[in-house]
């Protein structure tokens, strides 16, 4: 019952409409191809910054030995934070500063990054020491005892 | 109340199992209960060879006492003067 109707619909398509349809399909393919290329280009660009998108991030503790760090004024700490943030922005979204504990002669920094290398690069570009960089395997607290 | 960072050198710390970490945490909590409410454990970052622990305590002495009673090393104890994070850049 259905077959003859389908045949008749197909038969009713004019050659001109068929050409339009082919043209529209080709245009769509071109647009999709272009989008894919743009996506790959963006990924290549991010990779060249050392910032592969969606990289798996680990947490790191960085020991920075800074004489008299505990005596830094709020303005000095703000300036250091700005410098750090500026370098982080250049390095891309895969390195994140969580927080830092300032003590007498050291700053213990907690960062998230895909590897130690990008943390070293941040330190070099910012002019910060990075005397020891250790990957955090676990974070424990009172809850761990339960 | 001041906060402190304690470095505890513990070779192989990063390889401790969940059960071992739980046992250490329970031991630590037991000693903390004995020492009273003035000393509080915030959190610890466990790395390959070291633990970085953040505690709230009235003085360094109480942190040393906790380490001695729990049998934990406390290689370096430093009073935190400031905690900074990305928002510090906006100040």
Mind explaining what this structure looks like?
- The complex is a heterodimer of chains A (146) and B (91).
- Chain A has 146 residues and is an alpha+beta fold.
- Chain A has five helices and four strands; from the N terminus they run H-H-E-H-E-E-H-E-H.
- In chain A, a hairpin with a 2-residue loop joins strand 2 (96-103) and strand 3.
- In chain A, helix 3 (74-91) crosses helix 4 (116-126).
- Mean pLDDT of chain A is 78; it is low at 1-13 and 28-48.
- Chain B is α+β, with helices and mostly antiparallel strands.
- Chain B is 32% helix and 34% strand.
- Chain B contains two helices and four strands.
- Chain B has helices at 18-35, 60-70, and strands spanning 3-9, 40-47, 50-56, 76-84.
- Chain B has a four-stranded antiparallel sheet with strand order 2-3-1-4, with helices on one face.
- In chain B, strand 2 (40-47) and strand 3 (50-56) form a beta hairpin.
- Chain B is globular, with a radius of gyration of 14 Å.
- The two termini of chain B are 24 Å apart.
- At the A-B interface, helix 3, strand 2, strand 3, strand 4 and helix 5 of A face helix 1, strand 2, strand 3 and strand 4 of B.
Strand fraction of chain A equals 15-25%
The biggest beta sheet of chain B is recorded as: 4 strands, antiparallel
Strand-and-helix sequence of chain B, N→C? EHEEHE
| Silhouette of chain B | globular
Overall body shape of chain A = globular
How much beta of chain B, percentage-wise? Answer: 25-35%
What is the average of the pLDDT values of chain A?
A: 78
Strand-helix topology:
The complex is a heterodimer of chains A (146) and B (91).
Chain A: H1 2-12, H2 15-48, E1 58-65, H3 74-91, E2 96-103, E3 106-113, H4 116-126, E4 132-140, H5 142-145
Antiparallel strand pairs in A: 1-3, 1-4, 2-3
Chain B: E1 3-9, H1 18-35, E2 40-47, E3 50-56, H2 60-70, E4 76-84
Helix pairs in contact in B: 1-2
What descriptors fit this protein?
heterodimer, A: 146 residues, alpha+beta, 4-stranded antiparallel sheet, 4 strands, 53% helix, globular, disordered N terminus, B: 91 residues, 32% helix
């Amino acid at each position: 019952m259905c077959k003859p109707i389908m045949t008749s619909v197909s038969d009713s398509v004019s050659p001109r409409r068929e050409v339009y349809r082919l043209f529209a399909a080709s245009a769509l393919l071109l647009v999709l191809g272009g989008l894919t290329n743009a996506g790959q280009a963006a990924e290549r660009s991010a990779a060249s910054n050392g910032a592969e998108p969606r990289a798996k991030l680990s947490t790191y503790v960085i020991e920075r030995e800074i004489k008299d760090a505990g005596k830094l004024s709020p303005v000095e700490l703000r300036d250091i934070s700005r410098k750090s943030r500026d370098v982080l922005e250049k390095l891309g979204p895969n390195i994140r500063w969580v927080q830092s504990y300032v003590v007498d002669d050291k700053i213990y920094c907690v960062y998230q990054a895909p590897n130690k290398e990008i943390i070293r690069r941040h330190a070099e570009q910012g002019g910060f020491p990075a005397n020891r960089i250790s990957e955090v395997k676990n974070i424990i607290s009172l809850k761990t005892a339960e | 109340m001041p906060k402190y960072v304690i470095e505890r050198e513990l070779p192989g710390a990063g390889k401790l199992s969940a059960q071992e970490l739980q046992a250490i945490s329970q031991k630590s909590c037991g000693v903390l209960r004995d020492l009273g409410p003035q000393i509080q454990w915030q959190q610890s970052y466990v790395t390959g060879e070291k633990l970085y622990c953040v505690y709230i305590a009235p003085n360094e002495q109480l942190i040393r006492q906790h380490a001695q009673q729990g049998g934990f090393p406390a290689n370096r104890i430093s009073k935190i003067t400031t905690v900074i994070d990305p928002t510090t850049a906006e100040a």
